[in-house]
Amino acid sequence: MANKTMEQFYTDFLEEIQMSVDADLSGWNIEDFFTSIMLEYLEEAGEADDYIMCPFRGYGLQLNAYSLTEDYENLTIYVSIYNDNDKPKSIGQQDIDAAIKRAIQLYQKAVNDLYTSFQKDNDTYEFAISLHDHKDDIKTVRICALTNGLVKPIDFKNISIGNSEVSFSIWDIDRLYRCVMSGKMRETIEIDFQDKFNLTIPCIENATSDKYSVYLAIISGELLAGLYDEFRDRLLEKNVRSFLQVKGAVNKGIRDTLRDEPDMFLAYNNGISVTAESVEIVRDENGKPSIKSIRDMQIVNGGQTTASIFNAHKDKKVNADLSKVFVQMKISVINSSDDMDDIVPRISAFSNTQNKVQVADFSANDPYHRRIEELSRTIWAPAQGGLLPQNWFYERARGQYADMLARESTTLRRKKYKEQHPLFTKTDLAKYENTWDQLPFYVSEGAQKNFRRFTIRVSQRKGKLPDEQYYHNLIAKAIMFRRTEKLVSQQQYGGYRANIVTYTLAFLSYKTAQRIDLERIWKEQALTEALEKEIVEVSRFIQQTIVNPPGGANVGEWCKKEKCWKEIREHEYEISKELADELISVEKAKKEQVTDSSIELTENDQSIIDEAASIPATTWFELSRWAKETQNFAPWQRSIVFSVGTLIGREKKPSIKQSIQALKVYKGALEKGFNPEN
């Protein structure tokens, strides 16, 4: 990847777009696929967050995607300019201005009455109604033009629309190339304090190690807030940015100090820890050092402090006087680029030991992901119907698949390679696993957030690394997920396909106690007719449920809440006899769950297990007999109840899946008249 020319990068970028087009499930045009791929890169770079693909073109209006913060204060509108050329083409300012104008007009209509043009189950309706209902809350609007062309620098001026400040930016293919080729997947921040702020920062320097240098300084609250205002999350090292998820809320203790005792902030606060590629020092006549500039400044600890100072300054209720606020800052400069990847993550982890999440390895370099990569390179799926066998390709790091394709010398050979080696990425993997583990509200948060959630769960696991059986099951889940995407698309629901898919499969996972025959799916590389019919049937009520959230809530936000899942999970539904006949036994499912369990339980999971374990074994056996005698509940549910009783009788605890299903039967039985005291 690091040695790619611009031309090679561009060719691979177009290949990524084409792969998405080939797997088209959405009805998008090629401009939308370009937008999706571009935003994936920008999300990894920290330049896009929580974006929603929402293609719309109207007379003088354009929208390809958007992001809107939970407090509705910050909106980003993405508009794309795509041209179908083999080589990057220059894009004139006139084309950029026209696209931005369409986005401005879209915003102006959206805050008025654009929502009346759409049905309520449409993605664009949610965008329009959100802006209309919260137009007074929107403080900043960023319009970002995306293009696979080349754009000369444009000096945009911010404008005001109503109470909102509107800014503009461009990501062209050259800017993306430079960002990716930097090896950091983010743009390098260069801050010259002397040129920009007409000051230098006095410091103490220590260079006793050959590997790094450290500078200790005190920075003013005003300066730190100004830096955060300009660079926002780009200033936060990726681990901190990903997992602190700093929002608009101000930490209460920090807020109170900033408001009531700003001059005591330096004494009360631990300060911030920063890494940098280099620091430029100037000295006075006595040789005392001061920091003139910092290249690639990244805050690895103190993200909450930084964002809270900024937010308190902006919040009129707090009305913080930052002129009296000072923050201590430690800057670590790694002397050798060879040591960067090793030392910087350690500084980040050790600096954040007060937060247990921070000491996890947050990257795809985790042994789990490396093991999945190894398995994907060696295991071939069974051949079907005279076709060539397939070897699913796990792309642990972006660019691996494109590099393999580049080795194929002709278009025909590349086409054959893609057919034989279906691609799935680390965010795909997280989507499949969290859906099967009945966490659709995580999946609904978007690819990167869901991956972070999954990575935390993996980092907390106890047990062996994935084996061949685990990999078979994983690919079966991938086949099931992708087929469900197609089946849901065929129903033409109008919008929210991603939410419908994950909730549909999570619901089936729950209702079957994860007894869908994954090994059969692996062997046949396809779903049975009964399972496909069940997926369509379930998707119908899922769609109706999620597009009618309680209290007229935002559909997308509602799907991200565990409460949404809990309400859907309790929906009365009986699996068809055809699918029930195909389900594997409780014992086999339990064995597969043990093989498959590389994830540690959450606190909520543990409380459910403890609740099930607190009920005596005799009660579970009595319930099993009662259910059989009264013909209440399905045979597999009675079997689970008996298994839970057996485990508790042996002083062992049931699994989370067993506990959930058993407690549902137990509570349902109480409502039907079961009395464990009789």
UniProtKB/TrEMBL annotation:
Domain Abortive phage infection protein C-terminal: 236-550
A Pfam family: AIPR
Domain spans labelled Abortive infection phage resistance protein N-terminal: 34-178
Superkingdom of the organism of origin: Bacteria
InterPro entries in the record: AIPR_C, AIPR_N
Name the UniProt record assigns to this protein: AIPR family protein
Provenance organism: Anaerobutyricum soehngenii
